[in-house]
Amino acid sequence: MKPSARFACFAGCDERYPLDEVVYRCKRCGALLDVEHDLDALRARDGAAWRDLFDNRAGRSTSGVWSKVEWVYPDIAPESVVSFGEGASHLLRAERYGRSVGVPDLWVKQCGTSHTGSFKDLGMTVLVSAVREMIRRGRPVRAIACASTGDTSAALAAYCAASGIPALVLLPRDKVSVAQLLQPLANGALVLSLDTDFDGCMRVVKSLTDDGSIYLANSMNSLRIEGQKTVAVEIAQQLGWSAPDWVVIPGGNLGNIYALGKGFMLMKELGLIDRLPRLCVAQAARANPLYRAFKKGFAHYAPVTAERTAASAIQIGDPVSIDRAIRVLRATNGVVEEASEDELADAVARADRTGMYNCPHTGVALAALEKLARDGHISSTDRVVVVSTAHGLKFTEFKRAYHAGALDGAPSRHGNAPVELAPDVDAVRRAIDAHLGA
Length: 438
Ligand SMILES: *Cc1c(COP(=O)(O)O)cnc(C)c1O
Ligand SMILES: [Zn+2]
What we know:
- By secondary structure, the chain is an alpha/beta fold.
- It is built from 17 helices and 13 strands.
- The chain has helices at about 40, 45-60, 70, 95-100, 120-135, 150-165, 180-185, 200-210, 220-230, 230-240, 255-270, 290-295, 320-330, 340-350, 360-375, 395-405, 425-435; strands at about 5-10, 15, 35, 90-95, 105-110, 145, 165-170, 190-195, 215, 245-250, 280-285, 335-340, 385-390.
- Strands 4-5-13-10-11-12 form a six-stranded mixed β-sheet, sandwiched between helices. The protein has a four-stranded parallel β-sheet with strand order 8-7-6-9.
- It starts with a strand and ends with a helix.
- The model has no long low-confidence stretch (mean pLDDT about 95).
- Zinc ion binds next to loops.
- Zinc ion binds near residues 9, 11, 13, 28 and 31.
């Protein structure tokens, strides 16, 4: 029996579609789709055999996604795959920062150390490869489109450019960083800068992709989840095939929390790990619909109008994967935390002082970690992994505003400014002595 996968209705209808069909929702009930793997076929290997297989490939495959092809898109033709060696990212031992917040066994999964600087590469390699597979099998796809808060569009533009497929990206004007705007421009995408927010861009792109000739790359598309779920496998593998006690991840549209949960649950199901971690979604207080629902025991969910936050990639008021997120949070006894602008910027600055270079979204996760540690949810002996979702170098305006004391909603307690001096040795010596306290 060979591994195989197909789309299935997330809400549980009996609908099934092949992975090369252009379809994003259940045709019967309208729910999102989920890529469903043939578990009996995967069980042909036991947990130890899967661990050995992934360990053996780790040194040889350059992609952390395609080294787990059986769990991602089992029967894709190798010539359809377009890869930038995504995944296989470093799991950083954050000892000095961890001790300072009472969580010495702290690790940071560096998903932003990637071709376009965010974890979006993990999903986009699968989506664009799947479109190449569709085209190879004769489907008339003219282009791929997405609405984005900046990182999805960068990833889409790069993978499309490598494939020769036109990329169309819809961005909320003035709400992405300069680097995020330049990435798709450099890669030759058509960049449509709309005078609205992410949720507004999403509404437009949904209509554009209605007829199927332009393929939709947003995370309502469940193919991306399959690539992103390999982060869970890498974390377990890097911890000697064990689950940490907690994983904290920033959440906006909430596809990534679902991917993380799905990855851990599949590993447990197939015997690679023997327990699940507890998951925490961290949201910006200015864009916190999941946090509000969590406070009501998930009994009631309502979209919000997201306000401007430094964590711009998670400035989303109506997350498409809300039901997916709630499902994995329930399955892992998970929690949701929020962080103010001050809390996220302060956490970034203190963590940066220990050698990291965090993006604001990772700051939201670090601030959530600190709150969970303070209120006793996370204990000092717990092993915790924080998922860092993007590279800090994509967010230069945020860093510059913070260190200049000009960040909205956040005093710069740890700001650091250049000391401007004449090229005079004595003046320089005096500055060094003042700094070192000599
Ligand atoms: C997309 C993104 C997120 C949010 O991921 P979701 O799947 O939308 O919850 C967080 N951080 C960064 C840097 C991102 O680009
Ligand atoms: Zn359905």
